[in-house]
Amino acid sequence: MSRSTVILLGVLVVLVLIGYLVMQKPGEKSSTGERGEKFVMLDSLSVDKIEITAQGSPVVLQKKGVEWFLERPVSYRADQSAVAGLLHDMNMLEIRSTVSGKPEKHSVFQVDSTGTLVKVYEKGSEKASFIVAKMGSTYTELYARQSSSNDVVAVSGGSPMTFNKAVKEWRDRTIAAPARDAIKEVRYQYGDTTFVLAFRDSAWMVGRDSTEEWAVNNLISSLSNVQADDFRDSSTSRLSKPTAQITYAGTQLTFFYVKEGDKYVVQSSSTPQLFEMQSWRANQILKRKKEIIKSVR
């Protein structure tokens, strides 16, 4: 055997050894596992309760009738699309590989108490319990573990952000959402100044003044779906004098400007809940008369 052949064989052995060591990083092993198998099997229509616990703080979602509600840490109607998205993403989780079967390595992949525990119930009985953690090395997978198993698996089809939402992201942030056709009159009040935008004879008017069609269309669209940025569940200080009031479609919205944070606290006549809205969003509906009527050219 020539000297060059011996050298090449030696290099090959070293490369194989390096490859083995890379694939056997602490706590990891190369394994196809049950590649392509669903991580959890759920009947979305039968799911009636979901518990998500991250860093010891539980979020409990409960289905009542056909709608979802947040039970903990606050009691409030849930964002229906957020829950639907969660159910969809859970059903899409697919095992790509098994990366570890050692309990002592759970902390490496954050599938221990540092991970997010998810429990899913169908018709009152626990159907699934698993822990999701950080993204995998490819950033197209995340690490997860069934609560009843020591196996850490890499799963595709999800993201930690699917489960680790802020509480406000689970809450229904709708302040007012009347049907667009139900909006026929909008009354504005700024202190002692008032004006009314009304639909009369197939046209929107402010008194005898004609209006800019594009401006009114944008306004009515915004008024038919008024969303909050956050919630104010308690107030440490009294609200200041109202900045503005908008009355339309059987609802009155009162706006209180808060200089700190450049935002508004919004009070609706249809609920005792107080909302917070950033100024840029509020300005989409807080219109002055001159912004709506046709300018004289």
Walkthrough of the structure:
The protein has 297 residues and is of the alpha+beta class. The protein folds into two domains: 141 residues, no CATH class; 118 residues, Immunoglobulin-like (Sandwich). A nine-stranded antiparallel beta sheet has the order 4-3-2-1-6-7-8-9-5, covered by helices on one side. It has a nine-stranded antiparallel beta sheet with strand order 14-13-12-11-17-18-19-20-16. Strands 10-15 form a two-stranded antiparallel sheet. Strand 3 and strand 4 form a beta hairpin. The chain starts with a helix and ends in a 15-residue tail after the last helix. About 5% of the residues have low confidence.
Number of E-type strands: 20
Low-confidence stretches: 18-33
Structural class: alpha+beta
**How many domains, in number, for the residues?**
2
Return the string of H and E elements.
Answer: HEEEEHEEEEEHHEEEEEHEEEEEEH
| Beta-strand residue fraction | 35-45%
Distance between the termini: 97 Å
Rough outline: elongated
Q: What level of helicity do the residues show?
A: 10-25%
Instruction: Give the averaged pLDDT, no decimals.
Output: 87
Largest sheet strand order: 4-3-2-1-6-7-8-9-5
Cα-based radius of gyration, to the nearest Å: 28 Å
Report the major sheet. Answer: 9 strands, antiparallel
